[in-house]
What does this fold into?
Amino acid sequence: MQELKERIRREGQILSETVLKVDSFLNHQVDTELALRIGREFGQRFGGRGVTKVLTVEASGIQFAMAAGIALRVPFVYAKKKKAITQGEAVYAAPVYSFTRREAYQISIAEKYLGPSDRVLIVDDFLATGAALVGLADIVERSGAVLVGVGCVIEKSFQEGRFLLEERGIEVCSLARIVSMKPGEVQFAGEECNQKERITC
Amino acid sequence: MQELKERIRREGQILSETVLKVDSFLNHQVDTELALRIGREFGQRFGGRGVTKVLTVEASGIQFAMAAGIALRVPFVYAKKKKAITQGEAVYAAPVYSFTRREAYQISIAEKYLGPSDRVLIVDDFLATGAALVGLADIVERSGAVLVGVGCVIEKSFQEGRFLLEERGIEVCSLARIVSMKPGEVQFAGEECNQKERITC
It folds into this structure.
């Protein structure tokens, strides 16, 4: 998604070879119109495949799950990171380790919101180590739902997330695949060979 | 908002006289189309007043801030509940006590995303004790921005949140105001005197 890559180049802050900050337009302050276009992009790539529900994890996946839900005209569900006292029912849970926050947590989804009749598209802002997305994929599998695919806004291709998902046979589509980065410079997949957009999925 | 009240009556689970669960359509599984209509409702009530930014707090406010942002064609910002390692800059912070989760936490917003040139609409899913919303209002005041108003999806009018905001001179608009509830029964404001929608703001 060319517009997204340009925004990452223009506004992204590369703090190290692994940490990219995009909180001016994606995950703290959110460019609403861009988020909608990102959702339409997921809609185009996963439309016509019977998706009944979009799934993400709170908090920074919500705006993109909502945008994909708008495009696909389906509801979305976001996994909670903690069990609130109002969430007292049976849940699917999975452990996740966050490298960004350097802590382990549990994600959970009420069982009644995911079942064998669902066809699920998982959406998130980042694909890096894949920890949260593998946890979500495990939950989808346990629920008996069909996992149609995973859509990520930004992928750090130099980390193992895509590999971990693909070795489970999961289709992964990222709108901007970063193959390497360092302060002041970001290299996207497909740019050297001019394959542009096609290679991103 | 009549549609919202009907959904609360039909799908809301009243666990006690203070706890209402609406996670089948608002804040765990989200009815995307309803969320968009909620955003349009906020857009109608706060449109034409120069709002430059919608503000909320993660996680369950995000879908409504996004919907309001879509309606008003402005970006939104969500306050973070913890400081991530990628959020290293100057922030506005405020302490909040969550009665639902029974824990204290801190909300924060990067200073660069809120300033004197902004006119802010705060949006959240619930107005009850007002803790998070008062924290957000404090942050807006410190930033020098103008607070245009607060829009809530559901208000528990029997708790002190509205009072705390109004005594600061803040305009509060809730789309469904609950004056009392108990398992199997919910009473909305304005119903006894047939004032319907007008009284909700």
